[in-house]
Amino acid sequence: MVETDFLVIGAGIGGLSFALRAAASGTVTVICKGAIMESNTSWAQGGISSVLGFDQRAPGDTNEKHVADTLDAGAGLCDEEAVRVLVAEGEATIRDLVESGVNFDQEGGKYSLGKEGGHTERRILHCKDTTGKEIMLALVSQAQAHPNITILEDHFAVDLITTTRLGAVTDDRVLGAYVLSKASGDVIRYRSDRVVLATGGCGKVYLYTTNPDSATGDGVAMAWRAGAKVSNMEFTQFHPTCFYNPAASGAEARSFLVSEAVRGEGGVLVDAKGREFMYDYDERGSLAPRDIVARAIDQEIKKTGAHCVYLDVTHKPKGFMKERFPFIYQSLREYGLDAETDPIPVVPAAHYQCGGVLTDLHGKTTVRGLFAVGEVACTGFHGANRLASNSLLEANAIARRAYEEMMRLYPPSKEVIEAPAIPEWNHGDVTPPDELVNIYHNWDEVRRTMWDYVSIVRSENRLRRAACRLRNLRMEVREFYWGYRVNYDILELRNLVTVASLIIDCAQMRKESRGLHYMLEYPDKVELQRKDSVLRRF
Known about the structure:
The protein has 15 helices and 22 strands. The chain has helices at 13-22, 40-43, 63-73, 80-88, 90-99, 131-145, 218-225, 260-264, 290-304, 320-324, 326-334, 391-409, 433-453, 460-483, 488-509; strands at 2-3, 6-9, 28-31, 48-49, 106-107, 110-111, 124-125, 149-152, 155-162, 174-181, 187-191, 195-197, 230-231, 236-243, 256-257, 268-270, 309-312, 344-353, 356-358, 370-372, 377-378, 534-535.
């Protein structure tokens, strides 16, 4: 058994921001199920939203405007206190990242501020169109150099260890986690009274997603099995503009993100005939919030029978795309497209979960000693729809607040609990080769079911059919999990099925259309349903 003062599961901006603070107070072990740069943070293109000091902000911009934009995008479900607190901490977040070595783009001695859908002012700090990658490079460099931080790549957290799991009925506390080493195949016990979930989202639950392969909802699934409350999982954000490659088929056809910032810089959505259609759906046109734009594109595609719509930036000056969006520009060139002369074919794809493990404004979950930061958490900040570029802000700010709260409640110098004996992990035999094909088939069936029945537009019948299919899949996956020796494929499938079921359960609870959750039978908001959907296993 390995003991550590702090156990951080996940290594995006939230996990590493927390780890770097906690390292001043004790030993920190960071668990990454793959390579450390494989995270949603690394893939973030657009940037991070913040209202800066008066000498740096856009003329006329204020925290109140940022709050108003966030509340508007959240469709009446944001926790206003959470929005005000996190928006107010935006400048501290930028300062923190700059001190960590992030060099945001500047022009004329001031930060170059971008604008994205749903924002009324320019307030997006960026590093060209690879902001997340630059943030990760800075944080990873610091973390790897710190003597108190141990980073374990290719380690998969199987389950949280809690007093309830070990038989306690009155005291619900976290004790650590069982972790699978990919290299050895052994499951190791990691003992800690202070555990942070920073595992990111669950985009891979859908057939088409902008997320990396690692985004299988592991943190939400683990927290659910441990008895933590989970909230608002029906609100899955579909990014409106993912590159559609007509030469490819299946998931490859919708796998490349074209940043929201392209529309913020003047790109417009058009149909195959070049007609700008977004004003048919919203007075803000192509700069409407993501839920509105994604549904509009979905409706246009269904109405016309087209495979995609187009993002047109051909009216911008020559060289603009290459300078402002070099990663996107070069990626499109590799597919034979020149954004300066060719409209970009795009479709929506699953992008961001606005729900997650229920926490307060300090990242504290309903299980003592267990905290959650970043996309895995539901703080109330995003409500029913995330405002573009608010996620990196939230992750950093909550990580800072989580550390402060953890030091107040559970400092390493204070004995939190006399730990009961934690048994070794005990599991099944080696998976027979002829069964592996069934595991891969179930993986595909989960994702296709969610895409076909629980995506941008939903209905009671579609949700019932999806729930029925998931019940059967859950039974099969349970047999795989308990019948054979665990491996990455089985663990990810187990988590994927769990999260898919939570999304469906939450969606069936909400008899209205709000934000990212659109129901054919209930096209309007219902004031009585202006509340969070909350689930708990026990």
